[in-house]
Design brief:
The complex is a heterodimer of chains A (about 350) and B (about 325). Chain A is mainly α and about 350 residues long. Chain A is built from 14 helices and two strands. Chain A has a single domain, classed as MetI-like (MetI-like fold, Orthogonal Bundle), CATH 1.10.3720. In chain A, helix 6 packs antiparallel against helix 12. Chain B is α/β, with parallel strands linked by helices. The chains are: A mainly alpha (about 350), B alpha/beta (about 325). At the A-B interface, helix 11 and helix 12 of A face helix 3 of B.
Chain lengths: ~350, ~325
């Protein structure tokens, strides 16, 4: 019985000497755990590919998103006819010029999908970013200081929650589109339009109206995060290590930034990663009903909307944007699930 | 123990937690009287043990003394300065003089910080040292408490309960305090580890001339480490005496009942041990009984006196304080 004990002790001693002076970074550990999770790694790779695609859109896309010839409208790709035989060939133009076919104006669907990543991905990331920024700060203040302030701040969140989110966004978008359209210089609206033009031109989508989508989603996205952050802080601020930090004379800022935030940021990032498909979905829905980006800016939602009108005749117009949307949402969900497992402290030490 | 200077004086310390009701507007409907009028002092270099059952207000007392909770009433004089009147920066500076060792070594260390950051934080907060000097000081502290000095870069989850508690001790010692509240520092540890931590605390007391308020519910441990012992029941101290006076000549019926519950490690004597079994439960501190708080469970209560008037906490000689109508 003594032999295995000695070897295990020796092993421990060996491990100890290997570890000396080498910081074991918790975030690095989480990263390794994430990569070991196949679904999460796949999601991560897909998102990375989408990001690269959207950055290199002008190089990757075979055509410009707005370029089209109506004589080539509703072209069905030849390979799709082979794959799914039907009577489409009897009335539609079949060609191999466009990999995913063309839409009702003869624009290449693949190119529009590629340019569309410049709408969907930023919407997802900006939604998550503003939710983290506003929600975390709001939730931290509310949860940490507590008492009457907490009560007041959370009632405000409750009131915001009480509005149906979709309706609120729709109303806001309608307001933006009417109020901020075509204004004289020097007004608030003109300033917003100027900012919007800068954002649109940076993204290479002039006349897209991206700022208003960001605003609409940002304003409605933070409440859930504020509640989550507050709840996390309420449980964390009673922990003994926070008390210990008070005891050594640390200030509120230090306690929040060094003791509380690092311990709640994991669940918050997971929640926001899982919320990204929701933001993308919101944009898709807004574009579907015509309140999203302005044409001819390609959004997956407006593409689905265009295709829905002729769904029976030309199903390819809906199929490809819908597939792109589904794959993106899956990727973010896989990554979010993987992040949750990787960042969960209970998973520590497991391989 | 020679008569020495009084380091800490507590007078009529009260810590009440309000009970509120209501969703939007909060109504104050009562108070949890966790600590309800404590008076005692601790001399320089001594260890005062504070015992009592769960929920009697021991930990709250420790936290109220250190101003982690702001007391509802009473005064705490530390080296002549009234801590309850201190706020902001002066209070922060006082924290260099007094520290706390926590009960749960798993909850009291931030899992996202390295040992070096945890032990070094007090030094950083008080601008005692920084950079390489800080690191050296932290390494020395780790060695002081019996840990490898190269543990600085490791995270708390890599350590056992006993080692974690040593880290907690190192953090408390970092700024060179005079007074440490040990809040059940060994209750969460394995019995085999408890002795090590007790020895460490005693060693540190010798080395740095520390004064301890040692909170525990293990009577044998308190007997081992304390110079004087206070027994608490439902927010009040019922008896306070030197260790030997209390263990051999405990006067309060509650003290007697507690002591009778300690097993004796001698089968012959253990056989003859007479236990005083208390009946009933501890009353709620939100609604403590009238008169003596203990009268509902006291085997020797005087009806008409104990349930009407609160007994005075008085010195019966040789600095032996008891709060009981039966003792004079």
């Amino acid at each position: 019985m003594t032999t295995p004990e000695i070897t295990s002790q020796q092993k421990a001693a060996q491990r100890l000497s290997e570890r000396q002076g080498k910081p074991a970074n918790l975030w690095l550990d989480a990263w390794h755990r994430l990569l070991r999770n196949r679904a999460a790694a796949l999601g991560f790779i897909l998102i990375a590919l989408l990001l690269v695609t959207s950055l290199l859109a002008p190089l990757v896309a075979p055509f410009h998103y707005a370029a089209g010839d109506s004589s080539e409208a509703h072209t069905v790709p030849a390979w799709l006819i082979d794959l799914l035989p039907g009577n489409v060939a009897s009335y539609a133009k079949v060609s191999s010029k466009f990999l995913f076919g063309s839409d009702y104006l003869g624009r290449d669907i693949l190119s529009r999908l590629i340019w569309g990543t410049r709408v969907s991905l930023p919407v997802g990331f900006i939604g998550a970013f503003t939710a983290l920024l506003i929600g975390l700060v709001y939730g931290c203040i509310s949860g940490y200081y507590g008492g009457k302030l907490d009560n007041l701040m959370m009632r405000i969140v409750d009131i915001m929650y009480a509005f149906p989110t979709m309706l609120l966004i729709i109303l806001m978008m309608a307001f933006f589109k009417s109020t901020f359209a075509d204004v004289r210089p020097g007004t608030v609206a003109a300033t917003f339009n100027a900012i919007n033009d800068v954002i649109d031109s940076v993204m290479g989508l002039p006349g897209g109206g991206m700022l208003f989508i960001f605003l609409g989603i940002g304003i409605t996205a933070w409440m859930g995060m504020a509640r989550l952050a507050r709840g996390q802080i309420l449980s964390l601020k009673e922990k003994e290590f926070v008390e210990a930090a008070h005891m050594i004379g640390a200030g509120d800022g230090r306690i929040l930034l060094r003791h509380i935030l690092p311990n709640i940021i994991g669940p918050c990032i997971v929640a926001e990663t899982l919320a990204i498909p929701g933001y993308i979905n919101t944009e898709v829905f807004l574009s579907f009903i015509g309140l999203g980006v302005d044409p001819p800016t390609p959004s997956w939602g407006s593409m689905i909307s265009d295709g829905a009108a002729t769904l029976r005749a030309y199903p390819h117009m809906v199929l490809f944007p819908a597939l792109a949307l589904a794959i993106t949402m899956f990727a973010f969900n896989f990554l979010g699930d993987g992040l949750r497992d990787a960042l969960d402290p209970r998973m520590k030490g497991t391989s | 123990m020679a008569e020495t200077e009084i380091l800490l004086q507590v007078q009529d310390l009260k810590m009440w937690f309000p009970i509120t009701q209501g969703i939007v507007v909060q109504h104050h409907t009562g108070d949890i009287k966790a600590v309800d009028g404590l008076s005692f002092f601790i001399r320089q270099g001594e260890t005062l043990g504070l015992v009592g059952e769960s929920g009697c207000g021991k930990s709250t007392t420790g936290r109220a003394i250190l101003q982690l909770y702001r007391p509802t009433g009473g005064d705490v004089y530390f080296q002549g300065q009234n801590l309850t009147k201190l706020k902001g920066e002066p209070l922060r500076l006082m924290r260099r003089q007094m520290q706390m060792i926590f009960q749960d070594p798993y909850a009291s260390l931030n899992p996202r910080m390295t040992v070096g950051d945890i032990v070094g934080e007090p030094l950083e907060v008080h601008n005692v040292a920084r950079g390489r000097e800080l690191r050296e000081r932290v390494m020395d502290l780790l060695e002081d408490v019996g840990l490898n000095r190269y543990f600085v870069n490791r995270y708390p989850h890599e350590f056992s309960g006993g080692q974690r508690q040593r880290i907690g001790v190192a953090r408390a010692l970092a700024v060179g305090p005079k007074f440490i509240v040990c809040d059940e520092p060994i209750s969460a540890l394995d019995v085999s580890i408890q002795a090590q931590i007790i020895n460490l605390l005693e060693e540190m007391q010798q080395k740095y001339h520390l004064t301890y308020l040692f909170i525990a519910h293990d009577l044998s441990v308190v007997r081992h480490i304390s110079d004087r012992v206070a027994v608490m029941y439902l927010g009040k101290i019922v008896e306070l005496a030197t260790r030997d006076q209390l263990y051999f000549d405990g006067r309060h019926p509650y003290t007697k009942a507690l002591l009778s519950a300690v097993p004796i490690p001698d089968p012959a004597v253990e056989e003859k041990r007479q236990r005083i079994i208390l009946t009933g439960d501890v009353p709620s501190p939100a609604n403590p009984p009238k008169g003596c708080h203990f009268h509902t469970r006291c085997p020797v209560k005087i009806t008409g006196t104990c349930d009407v008037t609160d007994p005075e906490f008085k010195d019966i000689g040789n600095l032996h304080w008891v709060a009981c109508h039966r003792v004079s």
